[in-house]
Model the fold of this input.
Amino acid sequence: MNRKTSLLLSSFTFLLVFSAFSQDAEVEEREYPNREDNAKCFVCHGQQSFYETSQESGETIIRNMYPCLIIDSVKFYEANHWSFGCLDCHSFDYTDYPHLRESKFEYIPTCLDCHEGDEAVAQYNFERIAEEYEKSHHTQLTDTKYSCWSCHDPHGFRMEVRNEEVISHVVATDNAMCLKCHSGTTATDLLLGTGLEPLVATHEWLPETVNHFRHVRCLECHADLVDDVLVAHDILPADQAVNTCAECHSSDSRLLHSLYKYQIQEGRIKKGVLGSMITSDIYVIGANRNIFLNWISALIFGLVTLVIIAHALIRIIKK
Done:
């Protein structure tokens, strides 16, 4: 190994180490004011199982925690509500253990309970979101009580659309909310890869069905779009969903007003086919039209046609 190569490797190693320390420093700068108190809850709710001791006999047994009550502490401290204490939202009655049965019927605050009229989060327009949600098909169903937390995990929710650069990650995150209820997916389905079959069957009219599921959100077709809400919350009944290709594959594509809305507002997406290809931004067949490419294509087609005609005439004349 010559001196130049050795120097390059040393510099590269230094940059890697420096980057790692810088990231650690950024993480350490964040203060977790409720970590100690929350840890008391994570002793049980952060585990697959917990210990329970009989107050009468003193016998201790191991019980399995219900999956819906298990909180991933790592994801919690990476989520939007990372600075919260458990008792900021949950009743102080939960400080008693075993928990009182009545505690399970507590009122759980929703987004507006904290964010209504809050100028610090005015850009998210929570009040308008609530109005749209109240019109949603979900709120018309009487057999189940829906709330913000029916779709958004309060212990792991992250603002994906505004922060995530990769659109496919946004799609996967948002569609996962719908699939929790609408896929019918079980552990067996996941192992066998059959979980999406019922969903594919109900969308069989859609060409490249699975490909659409991977690249667009359910919301694109199943929600009413409004200009002043970034992510639509007015979920429509199935018979009112979009079922025509032209809604997305046209110059005024729905995707420009929904999935790519934030990126366009931020000026991240350049219009036109060439701009999209060069920057790896959005490209939707029928939506990204470039008039110059149209003329060039027509010109090439015309020239090829003339060559074919000329060739045919020459062969006829020489016979």
